[in-house]
């Protein structure tokens, strides 16, 4: 599969972030805990040079618990403050407030020495589409500040949100980068729902997901769809079995592979397949 998606509004959004970077003290970057490295926009590292950094592993309730721990440890080794988060249930929110203060401790002490007191930390909230930035902001603020939606591209422009005396947030639209050098990154983002489904071949995407699950999480498929898998099972056979398990048939009575593909993707994205992580921390780093 060759996946690329970089609509024009993302160029505008990146330019806007570049213009505002001088106003902020901290970049809060949300990543999807199911693919923490693939869901990091490399442009944010370039934009955020010299700024304090906080990584939020959002949707951690949908990811494998052991891998959540491993990714937190990996990011901390890279020098990032890191918090596991489930924005929808507000799990981890108290830790976010503490992490913001810790990440900006040097800035706060520098202000105090200059006689500047009680100036709030200004933080830019950044991340790829559909990673949950707006849900995080609304949960963190305790009120509806931004629009949310289970699809990429809901947030169109930037807005400042004053949370309290300590923190002001700049909400930004989700942006990808112009080209995925590694197509596995594009595939993972498409599986997560961070790429517009309208441009995707969902059958091919589901074959990729089925192959990964057969290798690393076969029990998730077996428990969800009530069938047994062998090590030699082909990806198309997995979709065939899902079609049979869900009674998806064409008018001719054959298993409906297209509908089965949609079932598999939707079940993964919603967490009905269980806690699954699509990539693991690089070894030796």
CATH class of the largest domain: Alpha Beta
Distance between the termini: 29 Å
Main sheet makeup: 6 strands, mixed
Number of domains: 2
Report on this model:
This protein has 285 residues and is of the alpha/beta class. It has two domains: 8-171, Rossmann fold (3-Layer(aba) Sandwich), CATH 3.40.50.300; 201-270, Conserved Hypothetical Protein Ylqf, Chain: A, domain 2, CATH 1.10.1580. It has helices spanning 8-20, 42-47, 65-77, 93-103, 105-113, 133-141, 183-192, 202-216, 218-225, 235-245, 257-270, and strands spanning 26-32, 52-58, 81-84, 121-126, 159-162, 167-171. It has a six-stranded mixed β-sheet with strand order 3-2-1-4-6-5, with helices on both faces. A hairpin with a 4-residue loop joins strand 5 (159-162) and strand 6. The radius of gyration is 20 Å and the shape is elongated. Residues 147-156 have low confidence and may be disordered.
Quick take:
The chain is built from eleven helices and six strands. With about 280 residues, it is α/β, with parallel strands linked by helices. α8 crosses α9 (about 220-225) and α8 (about 200-215) crosses α11 (about 255-270).
């Amino acid at each position: 599969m060759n996946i690329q998606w970089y609509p024009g509004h993302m160029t505008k959004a990146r330019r806007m972030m570049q213009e505002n970077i001088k106003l902020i003290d901290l970049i809060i970057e949300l990543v999807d805990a199911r693919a923490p490295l693939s869901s990091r926009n490399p442009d944010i590292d370039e934009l955020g040079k010299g700024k304090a950094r906080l990584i939020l592993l959002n949707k951690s309730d949908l990811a494998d618990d052991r891998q959540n721990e491993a990714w937190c440890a990996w990011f901390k080794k890279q020098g990032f403050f890191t918090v596991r988060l489930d924005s929808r249930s507000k799990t981890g929110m108290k830790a976010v407030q503490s992490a913001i203060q810790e990440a900006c401790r040097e800035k706060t002490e520098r202000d105090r020495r200059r006689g500047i007191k009680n100036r709030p930390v200004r933080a830019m909230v950044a991340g790829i589409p559909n990673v949950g930035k707006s849900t995080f902001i609304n949960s963190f603020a305790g009120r509806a500040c931004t629009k949310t939606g289970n699809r990429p591209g809901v947030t169109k422009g930037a807005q400042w949100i004053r949370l309290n005396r300590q923190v002001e947030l700049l909400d930004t639209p989700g942006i990808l980068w112009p080209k995925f050098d590694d197509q596995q990154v594009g595939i993972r983002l498409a599986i997560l729902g961070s790429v517009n489904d309208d441009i995707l071949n969902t059958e091919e995407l589901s074959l990729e997901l089925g192959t990964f699950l057969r290798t690393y999480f076969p029990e998730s498929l077996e428990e969800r769809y009530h069938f047994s898998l062998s090590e030699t099972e082909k990806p198309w056979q997995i979709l065939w079995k899902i079609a049979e398990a869900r009674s998806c048939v064409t008018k001719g009575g054959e298993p409906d592979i297209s509908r089965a593909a949609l079932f598999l993707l939707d079940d993964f994205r919603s967490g009905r397949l269980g806690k699954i992580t699509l990539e693991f921390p690089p070894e030796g780093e």
